[in-house]
Amino acid sequence: MAGTEDRRILRTQNNLKNAMLNLLKEKELHELSITEVAKQAKCNRVTFYSHYKDLNALLAAIVDDHLNGLASYFRKSFQDRTRFSSTDVERHLPIFEYIYNNQFIFSLIIKGEVLPGSQNQFCETLVQVAGTELRLEEESDIEIPTLNYFLTYGSLGFFLYWINEGFKEAPETMAKKLAVLHGKMYKGAVVVEE
Fold first, then answer.
1. Alpha-carbon distance values, 22 to 25, 98, 104 (Å)
2. Beta bridge pairs of residue 189
3. Which residues, 6+ apart, have CB-to-CB distance to 148 below 8 Å?
4. Entry pTM
5. Three-state DSSP class for residue 89
6. 48-84 b/e (C-beta count within 10 Å ≥ 16 → b)
7. Nearest-5° angle of CA 99, CA 100, CA 102?
8. The pLDDT of residue 152
């Protein structure tokens, strides 16, 4: 019985998230109402409030889902590897692929105009994965966390450029460009064993 109820809760939350994303393609967040989102999700306001405090909380849940998905996809890309060069396109390609496959929500996240702080959440997600699961091969005069933040937040501008250009370049092309830039900063990294 609890499994059925859990599935029902997840289905309702997914319906609300999908409704919100669909409506955001047509309107700005401040133009939306809870009633409108609930109606699009085929539920009522009471149901909405049983899951989320307000539209910002719903949007935050959507962002969390997609950032968790990005982190998982990124982790899987180097799961079976022991090391990679900073110029390995495979190091960066999964991030670009995931963003490309979820263009609309990542445009909102990376531009940071709809949900304040979402740019930082995006960067912190990448910093967390790289900081806990990868380490540089060579010695560095710069502390690893400092370099990790520099590379990640510097890459934010790279992602913004790609979004502003309408994703016209393929993920592989963008990954190659970022690999060249990272190759100028460090030589390689090894995957930290659990």
1. 5, 19, 10
2. 84, 136
3. 127, 130, 131
4. 0.86
5. helix
6. beebbeebeebbbbbbeebbeebbebbeebbeeeeeb
7. 65
8. 87
**Which is nearest to 165 in space by CA: 91, 109, 74, 100?**
100
The residues facing 85 across adjacent strands are 188
Ramachandran angles phi, psi of 114, nearest 5°: -95, -45
By the 10 Å C-beta count (0-12 exposed, 13-18 middle, 19+ buried), 146 is classed as: exposed
Side-chain half-sphere CA neighbours of 23 within 13 A: 23
How many angstroms separate the CA atoms of 171 and 82, rounded? 24
Token couple for 167: 């994703």
Residue that is written with structure tokens 């590897």 in the block: 81
**Residues of the chain predicted below pLDDT 50:** 1, 190
- Paired tokens of 172: 């592989």
pLDDT at site 156: 93
pLDDT attached to residue 15:
97
Nearest 5°: the CA angle 124, 164, 181 is 60
Q: What is the 3-state secondary structure (H, E, C) of 140-159?
A: CCCCHHHHHHHHHHHHHHHH
Asked if residue 42 lies in contact with residue 63, where contact means CB atoms within 8 angstroms, the answer is: no
188-191 vs 134-136, strand pairing mode? antiparallel
Vertex 101 angle, CA 100 and 104, to 5°: 75
